[in-house]
Design a protein that fits this description.
alpha/beta, seven-stranded mixed beta sheet, two-stranded parallel sheet, 8 helices, 9 strands, 37% helix
Amino acid sequence: MKLSACFCLLFCSFVSLKSFAQTSIKWGTDYWQGYTDYDGSGFYNELMHQIFPEPEYVLDIHYYPWKRAVKNVLQGNIDMTGAMHKTERLYHSKQPVLIDRVVMVSRVEDALTQSALNDKLGAYRSGYEDMVYYPYLEKAKMGLEVEDSYKGLTLLAMKKIDFYVGADSLVQLALNERDDRSEYEVSEIGSFELYWSFAFTDHGLALKTTFDEQLEVLREQGVLAQLYYKYGLTMPF
């Protein structure tokens, strides 16, 4: 009788542990103020914890420079990153998570346009050259790679460059940190969609499927709209 009871206890414990099996997710990301803040706050942090909640999922977050994050997900060293433009070498979310404007920032005294960049030197955030710089500025000189939008605006203020190109959401964050924001002219030159991206592996595909399903659930519940509103973002679908 005692053996039977012990066996039942062990079996129930095994079933219980199995039912609470956790899925580990390696998430590689750059630091984006208001999106992936180190303290766990930010739009992307909140969105990921809504889509992959504990205890079923464990988010193992690694901070890298953006180029390294992209390289790691392409090589399968991490499971996901975002948000980025589509490529055939990765799985991507069905819906974009952001649709952002591409803007060019110049000094008010210059107020540059896309048609007047032949002899001008620009800059862009590291890793964004294929999304926001070269697709829209074929006539511009080779651009300088900078760490973030704030550094780009600093170079612009020092007249080391003639213009800075970036995602509007990140440019606005940088402008809000500066006392000289009235000295900059911001003009829209395009737009781009950004998707959550997953390694081209079986695990990556499973995570993409879960992401798409949970995103739709959050949308139907109204949770997604509230989250976008909280961070002053427009929901793209």
